[in-house]
Design brief:
Blueprint (H helix, E strand, L loop, with lengths): L8 H15 L16 E2 L22 E5 L12 E4 L3 E4 L5 E2 L2 E8 L8 E6 L9 H10 L4 E11 L2 E10 L8 E8 L6 E5 L4 H16 L6 H10 L11
Antiparallel strand pairs: 1-4, 2-3, 4-6, 5-6, 6-7, 7-11, 8-9, 9-10, 10-11
Amino acid sequence: MPVGAGNGRRGLAGVALLVAAVASATAGCSKPADSDAGTKAIASPSGKAAGTGVRTGVRTGVRSGGSMGAAGSACELPVTFDIAEAWTAEAVDAPLSQGPVSLACEVDAKPAGHIGYLRVWTGAPADADIDARTALEAFVAAEKDASKARYSTFRTGTVTGVEVEYAYRSEFDDAPKTERALAVATARGPVVVHLGGLDTEEHEAMLPAYELAKRTLNADNPRARALWRRGRPDLPASSRVG
């Protein structure tokens, strides 16, 4: 996997864009470079709504490819959410951090015909007191070339969080491109879910997958709570989000 901080993506982005131009379907698009490390897997089918089969994204038309985040899934996280059909999840084990969070999982859009990733960044249990807004602002601040950030709050089910839309332009970009991220606070520290893209057009094309993840986000499930308690035995079984 790639190494370095969020601001070190300039050189990696140039390589990724060159690869995209030559091989169209093999380039990365966000902060970290492409990697074949880790174990790629389709998300667990456990994300089906009871009695309804595979979920279809409300207002987006994107179909769910299953849920990830729980113990035994491709990426074990403090949260669970649905990923879009055909997207593949890969756990990340690399010293790559941005603000108070480190890269934990990449969900690759290439199998669905897009150039980009939905990336999940997680904090440490020692940072469980960091609220979602603070974590997200620090995440964006660590992105040197980010600008025009617009923050808003959202609520889905029992989860309350903060999201941001901002512009990013590296030295290799012809024009600024749109990126988005959301953050929630959990008992195991803050979690940030980020959507980049090769350019704004690709970003917009992948938005339904981002909205599906946000709409199905859950930080209060038994398996995740078990993981939290192993890391922080002093915490109660119920999750703390928002």
